[in-house]
Fold each of these.
Amino acid sequence: MRKYAFVLGSHPLISFLEILNILNVEKIPHEKPFRIGEEILLIKMKIPEAKLKKLQNILGGTIKIIEIMDEFSGTIFNLDKLLDEQHLTKDYFAQTDTKINFGFSVYSQKSLVYAEINWLRNFAFQLKRRLKTKYSVRYVDEKNFELSSVMVANNKLVETGAEIIIIKQDKDFIVGRTRTVQDFRSYVQRDMEKPSPNPKSGMLPPKLAQMIINLSRNAGQTQVFDPFCGSGVLLQEGLLLGLEILGSDIDEEAVEATQENLKWLLKTFNTAAPKIGRDKIKATSIQGRTRAADATRSRWQKANQTNVFIATEPYLGPPQRSIPLIHHARKTAQDLEKLYLGFFENLAKNYSKIKNVGIVFPVLKTNEGLLYLNILDEVEKMGYKRREFLPKEEAKKEALSSPRGGLLYSRPDQYVLREIFVFDKR
Ligand SMILES: C[S@@+](CC[C@H](N)C(=O)[O-])C[C@H]1O[C@@H](n2cnc3c(N)ncnc32)[C@H](O)[C@@H]1O
């Protein structure tokens, strides 16, 4: 087993839980993970080279995966002795024929002090000078030592040298090299280039769709069903992850948009786009897999199977342009509660073989604070038990967990937050 560090995305708790579930689903041998601050997850795992890249591509919430090479206790100045030319060229740089591009990123709960930053910059420039005698060298300087995945990719650090990572926790240092970074180009393409975006309902970001799927799926399940499929973001990500898909929506236009988008995905992905979780999407993977239906009444034998799980973002209410007054928001919440309960009721009645449901609940911002859908007890009575992602005491400490243990996802300018749950059928 080797030690790796995962740099977690903007919602680190969701990222962390996504990784835990996927390591189990993908049967990657690993030891108990260990969190350092908000941003870093350390895990010892056994993973073949090719699978590491795939792991990066299927995780919506991981920005970088780093292979740990060294650990020491002391101060940052000790790097001088540790990172000598021989060790770097042998163990850190990806290739050393002619050209080396390198940079440093530091992850630390407490920011580095001026003297440390200054020292590290000097160290980097000295290193560049020393290497220059043998190679054509480029040092990618970032003033705060926070290279983004975009900078790492654009400067080809992983393929042509290294992004050297320093993780600092008090006096302990962990040093490694970045092995993979999130493919931002692919996410932008999936988000922006599809032919039928759905301006009516808010857009689900592809990374979040991936995370919802990855949190909800159990090992062995091969089909994802989205009964509120909208323009099909979640289905698209399901296909890319290598799953079979089933989708429905009450709005026929939405179903047509989904079909257009999936055709586009098949064409784009099977030709030029980089592969995510599978090598090829077959045309049969999208034929007869979507239809118009009301999620509170419909019955679809195809979807009522034990290898099917649900991952969905249903309707989150009318778009808001300002913070609503509490009594307006209550009315919206009541309508949504009815829709959600109708869905769970129908699920219990017509989809008894489906055992797990990953679902987004809306949380409404109001002039009197956050308003949650108050339906958890009723959902439980219907036989769907909320999955406890973390032990209660730990959940309380998490800023990104709702008071009742849902996972919160939001951007600062949004009036409707998302609360993610996974329910398991008893
Ligand atoms: C936020 S969008 C769904 C986004 C979608 N999950 C995705 O991945 O792109 C909400 C969708 O729910 C649909 N909807 C609302 N009520 C419904 C119902 N009773 N049954 C099925 N779909 C419904 C709307 O037509 C809308 O397309």
Amino acid sequence: MIHSIPQDTIQRIKNVANIVDVVSEHVVLKKAGRNYLGLCPFHAEKTPSFTVSAEKQIFYCFGCHTGGNVFSFLMQREGVAFPEAVRALAGKYGIEVPTEHLSPAQKERLSENEQLYRVNEEAMRFFQRTLIEPQSGQRAMSYLVGRGMTRKIIDGFQLGFAPERWDALCRKLQEKKVPNELMVKAGLVIPRKDHNGFYDRFRDRVIFPIMNLSQQVIGFGGRVMGADLPKYLNSPETPIYNKSRCLYGIHKANRPARASGRVYVVEGYFDVLAMHLYGFENAVATLGTALTPDHVQMLKGMVGAAGQVYLVYDSDQAGIKAAQRSVRVFEEGFLDARILVLPKGHDPDTYLREHGPDDFLKWADKAQGMISFIISTAINTHGLSLEGKVKVVAEVQESLAAVHDSVARALYIQQLAERLQIDENAILEKVRQATGRSTPHVAKATDFRERLEVNDGRRLEQQIVAMMLCYPQMIPEVLGRNLVDYFEDDQLRNIARMLGQRGATQQASAADMVSMIEDPRYRGLMAQLALEECHWDRQGCERFLSQFEAHHRRRMREDLQRQIEAAEKNKDTELLSTLLRKKQQQAGRGLINS
Ligand SMILES: [Zn+2]
């Protein structure tokens, strides 16, 4: 692996980083025996199969077979490369990653994503400075204060201001020797149409830096202070910014959401800030997009499957639209959500300012589940006239069809039938039609990955690899007997060879060994094997290796016997004599009697 981080720095991080702590920031974990168990962040599931071992510092999902160590967890979870995962952990544990010693050529090799984080960080600092400078930032500061923002919120969310100039940021970054292409790639500047230079994307706007869980700046949102349009402007999609995988405020909301088991999803930047202002730090916002399956997984990672997710809207209209669009996504992510519609004319900011946090909580208590909300809104809108009832059923049938749990669905249908005073079967029929139209696609990660098939030989091979992982003293013995050459499974053979190369020279922990492997399929398999309980002793190991040898010889003997019989049947005397010679050789090596 070529990267720019010194080996001793990586080792220091390994020494202090605890995989349980790191995973806990993304997944709600419960102690289960020796390990920790939670809902997999890499596939949708109802019952936990995601296992983390504190002892071995590895994780493995028995559902989708993803596995690895603390670095690979972050790499997959945040979609980043190894150096970025290392830097994120270094930041978390206050370990400095030196870069001064890097030669220009090495700096060049810093991954593109790292460079993008850095230029975004630069830009954020520039916007922040501009906001607090008395001259340039005065108007923006008064605007924010006018919207009720305190200095604490402004600093805490690192708000900034992009001045009313065409190239303020561009010049600043050029001074810092940031290449133009990188600024363009980060979405901070736009090339002029006449190819003569660049101009700033964000001008005369209040700036909201958007961060990921590791507190890296991935993009920006900018809001005008007057009536200009568009009111909001966000960074374009970049290699590090994908709005369907980002939630504004997640870096602040993660811990409080975890602690309270509750998260509020509000509509915009200012809503998140207002929630914070009144003590609700467990609030995030989507960035101008409907909730996606990735969002649902992120929310589930914050509060767990039994957690409470409140989608907060400022009108019935916004609420119903969101509920209808999101019901399937939540159903498929196995997460429940409630719809909280604030009283007419209120957004979280005005509501909290007028009524205070206690009333907000009382209001939240009245929030309905998605389906109940969709049903009652439809009845309120269309009424209970004959035509009204027809419209109500037409409006809710798709949502009902999206409900996976057949008991829940039956109960909703029953409830609806009672409220509309029509026959349950009539509704059921409509829901069935809707089910036929929609193509439910429950994400089954297992479909896409090779399932472990258990046959004797492969099972034995797996156990040998597990032994090499947990009892590395046996590695020389395994190599000495050439047992790996007998392996029939390619993956296992390759892993065993890798372990052989490494383990023969030095002692390495399971997490170390897992980290040697870059191919995610191999890594998952390896993590699974490393998780197996370690009950080996020297004698047990030797007995087992002998068993394996015996198994292999039996297989060879049976194979040969089959070939001999076939040759006899075909009267292929030449082949027959070769095979018989082979049989004699086997016997001569004492294989026959073992
Ligand atoms: Zn999984």
